[in-house]
Amino acid sequence: IGLKVRAWHLKGLFKNAALAMFDILAEKKNNEGLLHSRPQEIAIEQKADNLEELFINWLNELLSLSATKELIFSDFCFTKLTREGLQAKGYGRVMSHYRFKTEIKAATYHELEIKKAGPRWQARVIFDV
After folding, report:
1. What does pTM read for this prediction?
2. Cα 28 from Cα 35, distance rounded (Å)
3. Which of 39, 54, 72, 117 is the 20 to 30 A CA-CA neighbour of 111?
4. Which whole-number Å values give the CA distances from 115 to 5, 46, 59, 74, in the listed order?
5. Quick count: other Cβ atoms within 10 Å of Cβ 77?
6. Closest CA to 128 of 46, 53, 58, 60
7. pLDDT tens profile 19-77
8. Which residues lie closer than 8 Å to 121 by C-beta, 6 or more apart?
9. Residue 93 and residue 72: Cα distance in Å, rounded?
10. How far is Cα of residue 54 from the mean position of the Cα atoms in its chain?
11. What's the first-to-final CA gap in the chain, in angstroms?
12. Where are the alpha helices (DSSP H) in the chain?
């Protein structure tokens, strides 16, 4: 499964890719349980040699954290994002509030593309399912 995302800023591109990935992975069962639960905050830090590696590391780290912490992430806040590293907070809710649609094993480098197209950033990524 592949996706293409766009954003005005690099932080938005990373956030939109992560949100789109979790939209592929799961959907809310209903809003009732979500209204009464607080999202859990998870600190995330990644380093890489280049932007492409950072992007893939980011998405794969989120998949790993989702599985180990049993959370579905629904928001992100970046405190730092450069071509070689990031610091962010992910906000997730327990998996019991979601229905799973597609298992994503990993984000891949196959046909990966991250570029600035005019005033916007855009990325294309393929997931191993």
Report:
1. 0.94
2. 12
3. 72
4. 11, 20, 17, 25
5. 12
6. 60
7. 999 999 999 887 666 666 789 999 999 999 999 999 999 999 999 999 999 999 999 99
8. 6, 7, 8, 9, 10, 12, 13, 114, 115
9. 5
10. 12
11. 7
12. 10-25, 31-35, 51-69
